[in-house]
Amino acid sequence: MDLSSIVIVGGGAGGLELACKLGRKLGPDRVTLVDAKMYHIWKPSLHEVAAGTLDIHQEGLSYPMLAHNNGFNFVLGAMEGLNGRDRQVEIAAVRDDVGDEVLPRRVLQFGTLVISVGSQSNYFGVKGAQDFTISLDGPQQAESFRLKMLKHLATLDLRKKLDPSASLDIVIIGAGATGVELAAELREASHVHSRYGFSRIDAARDVTITILEGAPSILPVLPESVSSAALRLLEQRHITVVNNCRVVEISSKQVEDASGNRYKADLCVWAAGIKAPAWLANLGLPVNRNNQLEVEGDLRVKGEHHIFSLGDCAACVQPDGSMVPPRAQSAHQQADYIYKTILNAERGKAAPGKPYLYKDHGSLVSLGSRSSVGSLMGGLFKASSMFVDGFFARSMYASLHLMHHYAVLGGLKTFLLAMARFLLKRATPLVKLH
Ligand SMILES: Cc1cc2nc3c(=O)[nH]c(=O)nc-3n(C[C@H](O)[C@H](O)[C@H](O)COP(=O)(O)OP(=O)(O)OC[C@H]3O[C@@H](n4cnc5c(N)ncnc54)[C@H](O)[C@@H]3O)c2cc1C
């Protein structure tokens, strides 16, 4: 049994950063990353992929390239099982679009296992939600939304010839960061589309965007100053927000709430909650009711010395009883904590000692390519939370994505890629048109 290998399953915001850092120290014979996909896209940018302002083919970073550059081994495939006694991870066969087997089912031996497979939409049993909404769970879903929107815009442009009152109605369920960012990005994209080829469409009038939120305000977990500033910006962009709205049923063309109100929806996006993948509950490891793996303060899965979990799929309770929120910020910090724990063990030193503590550095919400609002916490500013907006907030927001690229690509490549994208944006339309 090879107990020296470190297997990380899930190369997202947290897992990929961990694989890169460990790979650079220990090399490909020791560090393996498993992911169900061939390429990585930072999940917080998926609303841009959905709106077409970020091209999935330019943005995706291929795992084999990242593995080569950072010194880890990459295995393509979805984890589907665990043999804890023999320390084996079971990887499903990989099939192509027509179902032909490309890679067989495999088993990987591990000495240390890190599970960082992220999350997916939680539909809370709402009728029709799974069948009639699109969720930004991954790049494929975001790209599929973009293609559907293009198709609807093309049809609308034709319909406008016969019926000047025709519209494209988009409903987003959930006014957390995902829903709010998507709405603003879609509004910006719809303006660009009406300039390129869809000349009969007046975006602000003909593309209606409505956000339905169950809580009394949008961005309910953020400070009131951020929520009200974001609401103002959404209203300026002709985006309708309905608060205190509990969605009970969704069909192919409409959404109905608990008060009997009906909202026309040609396209409907579900952004109202997440849970960890269901298969995690079948591994024989402790999970909570959202399928998240229950971890101790040192991020080891409860009762398991050799298995860690981080990010959206881990349920980590803080000393004050609160849960670590499912955010890229937490996944990044937890990757750093596990990296230190593993490296200390490699060098025969003690583990960090203190349990992992989530440090909230604040939240930034993007409202299109020019605006962001948010709050920054502690450290940099003495106040417990400071409201930021305008150019400063926008620059801070952009820097988060760059910091992730820096962690996985290094300084020079991040700089070159940022420059290339800056130039490309000036040479091509703001949205992908094909
Ligand atoms: C539109 C949007 C905007 C967001 N904005 C922000 C923001 O501004 N700030 C913020 O902090 N957070 C934001 N988030 C949340 C943030 O993206 C997540 O909290 C973060 O990505 C979680 O990181 P992770 O490493 O746990 O999982 P992910 O980044 O989701 O990565 C999971 C990885 O696991 C892989 N995987 C899944 N199943 C398997 C399997 N069975 N076998 C192998 N691999 C598997 C996936 O392919 C993926 O690569 C946003 C999310 C969305 C959708």
Strand portion? 15-25%
Low-pLDDT segments: none
Strand order of the largest sheet: 5-2-1-11-23
- Rounded to the nearest angstrom, the distance between the terminal CA atoms is 50 Å
The H-level CATH homologous superfamily of the largest domain, spelled out, is FAD/NAD(P)-binding domain
Ligand catalogue: flavin-adenine dinucleotide
Which structural class should the secondary elements be placed in? alpha/beta
Number of strands: 27
Overview in brief:
By secondary structure, the chain is an alpha/beta fold. The chain has helices at about 15-25, 45-50, 55-60, 65-70, 130, 140-160, 175-195, 205, 225-235, 330-345, 390-410, 410-425, and strands at about 5-10, 30-35, 40, 60, 75, 80-85, 90, 95, 100-105, 105-110, 110-115, 120, 135, 170-175, 205-210, 240, 245-250, 255, 260-265, 265-270, 275, 295, 305-310, 315, 360-365, 370-375, 385-390.
Draw up the topology in text.
Elements: E1 6-9, H1 15-26, E2 31-35, E3 39-40, H2 46-51, H3 56-59, E4 61-62, H4 63-70, E5 73-76, E6 79-83, E7 88-91, E8 94-95, E9 101-103, E10 106-109, E11 112-115, E12 120-121, H5 129-132, E13 134-135, H6 139-162, E14 168-173, H7 177-195, H8 203-206, E15 207-212, H9 224-236, E16 239-242, E17 247-250, E18 254-257, E19 262-264, E20 267-270, E21 274-275, E22 293-295, E23 307-309, E24 314-316, H10 328-346, E25 362-366, E26 372-377, E27 385-389, H11 390-409, H12 411-427
Parallel strand pairs: 1-2, 1-11, 2-5, 11-23, 13-20, 14-15, 14-20, 15-16, 22-24
Antiparallel strand pairs: 3-4, 6-7, 7-10, 8-9, 12-21, 17-18, 18-19, 25-26, 26-27
Helix pairs in contact: 1-10, 11-12
The site of flavin-adenine dinucleotide (FAD) has 33 residues, from strand 2, helix 2, helix 7 and helix 10.
